[in-house]
Amino acid sequence: MTEHLTVDGGTLAYEVTGDAGDLVVLAHGMGDSREAYRFLAPALVAAGYRVAAVDLRGLGESSVGWASYSRTDIAGDLIALVEHLGGPAVLVGHSISGGAVTIAAAQAPSLVTAVVELAPFTRKQQVGLGDLRVARFRRGMRHLLGTALLGSTGQWRKYLEVAYPGPKPADWDVRLDRIEAMLREPGRMAAMQQMGKSTPADAGERLADVRCPVLVVQGTLDPDWASPQAEGEAIVAALPPGLGQLALVEGAGHYPHVQFPDQVSALVLPFLAAARA
Fold first, then answer.
1. Which of these ranges, 103-117, 139-153, 156-170, has the smallest mean pLDDT?
2. Exposure letters 17-53 (e unless 16+ CB within 10 A, then b)
3. 3-7 and 10-17: which strand pairing?
4. d(Cα 20, Cα 8) in Å, to the nearest integer?
5. What is the CATH number of the domain that holds 153?
6. Containing domain of residue 15, as a range?
7. What is the per-residue pLDDT for 24?
8. Structural domain total, the chain
9. Which one of 185, 204, 237, 268 is most buried, by most CB atoms within 10 A?
10. What pTM does this model have?
11. How far apart are alpha carbons 61 and 188 in whole angstroms?
């Protein structure tokens, strides 16, 4: 059941499942909604967690027309939600939200017990000539740029085809149609475009300030980086020593938690148990 939280600038839509247990807050990536966690959330609930999946500002069922859509803004939304739900909480963030949960952990250490970053944009990106030699990276960037410049849902669908290499979820076609319908609602594509134009530098600047355990999960075929492993290693290296660990999901693209939810659950659940201990 959808619930709403009014914060400064708008209203956030979220859904809580699980009656008891430690709180886990799930934040999706740009151009998506909380349905991105339709496979991972039940596994967390079955393991005894209380799970809140939130729609980012401007997307899903959250309101549109926010003043800005940076990772710092999203971090503030997540902190407000954790406070509202009686945290502390584990924060799980995908893509842009990977950067947001990093900032939230640095800003509110008493409210964040652990962080999971799924294919995160948490550092300022630099593209070299070597990156452009990787075909999947070129294809993904072409469609991302087309989405950002043209506001094209067709370009976003083409990007998602690249971002999900190999096996697709059973509900793939239905889910693509739902994403496209959501982005055609007034204000939602504009919100996504602003997210795409925001820099992850604000998150990178806070990596050294994180004080809780961090798990970074990268798909080996993620088209958003020429080397997803190298990006994950750089994030872990920028954290305080001993806090970060990197896990790779073989054959996954930019959505490992959707393509391979069982494998991601098998990585996340032991990490959360160790963090709680």
1. 139-153
2. ebeeebbbbbbbbbbbbbbbbbbbbebbbebebbbbb
3. antiparallel
4. 29
5. 3.40.50.1820
6. 3-276
7. 98
8. 1
9. 268
10. 0.95
11. 10
